[in-house]
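To: structure desk
From: M.T.
Subject: fold request, one chain
Message: Could you run this one when you get a chance? Sequence is below, nothing fancy, just the single chain.
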Amino acid sequence: MLLLGIFLGLGLSICLSICYTIQFNRYFGRENFSKRNILAHFAVLPLVGWRHKFAKVKKQQQYLKQQLQNYQNLLEQAPLGYLQVDEENQLLWCNQQARQMLSLEKWQPGQVRLLLEVVRSYELDRLIEKTRDRSSSQEREWVFHPSCENAEAMVEQKSVVLRATGLPLPQGQVGVFLENRQQLFEMSQARDRAFSDLAHELRTPLTSIRLVVETLQDRVNPPIARWINRLLTEVDRLIDLVQSWLDLSRLESNPTTQLNYQPLEIKALINSVWESLEPIAQRQVVQLNFTDVDDAWINADKSRLYQVFFNLLHNSIKYSPPCGVIRVEVNVNVPLQNKNKSSPENGPLLAIDIIDAGHGFAQEDLPHIFQRFYRGDKARSRSIKGEGNSNSLDGSGLGLAIVHQILAAHGGNITAMNHPETGGAWLQIHLPQVIAKSVTQDYI
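Reply: Done. Structure tokens follow.
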């Protein structure tokens, strides 16, 4: 039985082999049946798949080219300027708006040239490098002076205020959007001049009105005296508003000429400011927690910095809850980002933190805190409890703008945040040019 099964299997295999051979010969032709023809036939089979793949890739390439052309057409018609550079800062492409803003007369579409060869702008080049190094969007605004071949063209060519936003792209490339801010800048200047002229015109009649109100104070009966006092308060408020606007205009136009530098000890300055504000703090039952370093001196304008801390501490008192504590911390930092000895920021920086326990700033208000006339969250506009009448805490909207300008004129800066522990406002000041104790002895 075993042998019979073996012979049957062998016979079946031979029959199947003969059948497949006959079908194979019919398919290829008996006269062409050779090893070379068989290999040629099977070699054709994968080529068909490759043809389909190549056709698909070609179709996708055409689609991407069309998409790129569509994006370029959109950027070409965009109201903003756009340019793109490679990892070596070679200009790859820019639209018509960018060519007009940057006066790119020598550059033609399709050329690849270094950006500095066609645009003489350190600010733009620094923005691109900063965007590439930090791999994040960067923004800068500056006055651009187009380069000209001759003096006559330079006289006719006007400078423009540009704002640029750099965007990091793959392979070290950077895209830059450009916005012409010249018209907005001129409108802002015209507005400032109009307000400044108006402030000058209002100061004299307001002073006269105040003199009349002071004269009436001693000549009216008590029921009417209340309204006279209220009128005097409002006139003083208008005078302060006018004076604040004039101060801000002067600081913005020429900040350095408005400063009278002298050696100044921060501890004594803040203590004198708090003594002036202590009656208001006592009504609010607000205390000061002052932590300072010994002999922290700077070279600054005393009256201007007094104005800064008076404004900031006054705001902290107004927005602190009853029985609250205002923390003022003074520290000396050494900046690591600037090692140039000729720079005024090379020495130690004085860091001053003012922290209250109030409601803090709304997140959407933080980028605009130091803008003129900006009014933020109403939660920071409560009424002072404990006074006879509810006096609104709404100010003119110029106080923090003036603070920002004064500190900028001193080469410093101020940042607004919310403190993670108290939840209140956290204002951090940095001032350069810290004077050593041995240097201050020459002035005493």
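Reply (cont.): The first helix runs from residue 2 to 28. Let me know if you need anything else for the meeting.
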